[in-house]
């Protein structure tokens, strides 16, 4: 097994950050070994030594996105849902998660290897909402509520080109609480 | 102005259908004049004569998607919302609207000319819901309700890779009606 030479760790981190930047800035087809090497300031040969093909590079780049930031659920149900939607929005604004999700949505049907990457992103993204709502609703109810909460944010970012406002998020949570007859102070 | 020679009309329709097929099957970067010409059974020269560049071709291809199918709103509020969401889902399944939307979501930020195409799709898609809910809710309420209804379907199709079930759509409409305190029989 390769020793964790700090220079190797650093090189990998630099390249994967550059690959992720290219992906969210320019899209899937811009992620080529020559272009990413140029952006990261390394040789093409270095990139090929670490990642034999584009898919390996993209997959590792998505992985560096890492666990999405989630707020710890510590308040009432209303507060926790609002905080979680704000985290989702913050990840879009600060880490351009909306761009990463758009690439995964667009490419996963054509590139089967990306399906599991997309699924892992979605599962990680939805986990706190599902954990909070799971004990309170039947399974289809959880699905609908999670889809309405996440989907509302996604629809704003991907279809209207801008993440939603605070008021939108508050009202969205309010509507779901009411729509599923949930106690906001639970 | 060019006369509407039926052969020209036919050629354009054939090519644009092929371009749209390539777009939803293979994605944005596959839509090139040579590839679309091959798929449509016309010469590259014919394509270049009608569409000087790729963007012109893609733009016209998106336009052939035409008006999205909408059901006439003739029932109760609950029925009309359910029927509208089913139309949205049917367009995804029958015309692969989900793929077209994914391409627009992914490409519009990088290709400014696609912004208006995406916006027109979204406006056309949301129109019946907005027309039905507009008189019943304040403006932010309409936005949130439309985003939750459309976004729920979109999240299922783009992020989970499959359009939602009938039960999902019924429950989604139910939750929004309740969440916004709307009379289902209105």
How would you concisely characterize the structure shown here?
Chain A has helices spanning 6-26, 33-40, 44-50, 54-64, 77-95, 97-107, 114-133, 139-159, 166-179. By secondary structure, chain A is an all-alpha fold.
What report would you give on this structure?
The structure is a homodimer of 186-residue chains. Chain A is mostly helical and 186 residues long. The first copy, chain A, folds into two domains: 6-64, Arc Repressor Mutant, subunit A (Orthogonal Bundle), CATH 1.10.10.60; 77-179, Tetracycline Repressor, domain 2, CATH 1.10.357.10. The first copy, chain A, is 71% helix and 0% strand. The first copy, chain A, contains nine helices and no strands. Chain A has helices at residues 6-26, 33-40, 44-50, 54-64, 77-95, 97-107, 114-133, 139-159, 166-179. The radius of gyration of chain A is 19 Å and the shape is elongated. The model of chain A has no long low-confidence stretch (mean pLDDT 92). Chains A and B meet through helix 6, helix 7, helix 8 and helix 9 of A and helix 6, helix 7, helix 8 and helix 9 of B.
């Amino acid at each position: 097994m390769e020793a964790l030479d700090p220079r190797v760790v650093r090189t990998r981190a630099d390249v994967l950050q550059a690959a992720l930047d290219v992906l969210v800035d320019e899209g899937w087809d811009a992620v080529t070994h020559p272009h990413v090497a140029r952006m990261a300031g390394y040789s093409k040969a270095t990139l090929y030594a670490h990642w034999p093909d584009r898919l390996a590079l993209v997959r590792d780049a998505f992985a560096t996105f890492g666990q999405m930031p989630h707020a710890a659920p510590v308040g009432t149900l209303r507060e926790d849902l609002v905080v979680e939607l704000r985290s989702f929005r913050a990840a879009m604004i600060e880490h351009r998660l909306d761009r990463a999700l758009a690439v995964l949505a667009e490419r996963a049907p054509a590139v089967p290897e990306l399906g599991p990457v997309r699924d892992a992103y979605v599962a990680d993204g939805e986990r706190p909402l599902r954990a909070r709502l799971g004990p309170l609703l039947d399974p289809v109810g959880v699905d609908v509520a999670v889809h309405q909460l996440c989907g509302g944010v996604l629809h704003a970012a991907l279809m209207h080109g801008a993440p939603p406002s605070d008021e939108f998020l508050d009202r969205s949570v309010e509507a779901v609480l009411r729509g599923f007859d949930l106690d906001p102070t639970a």
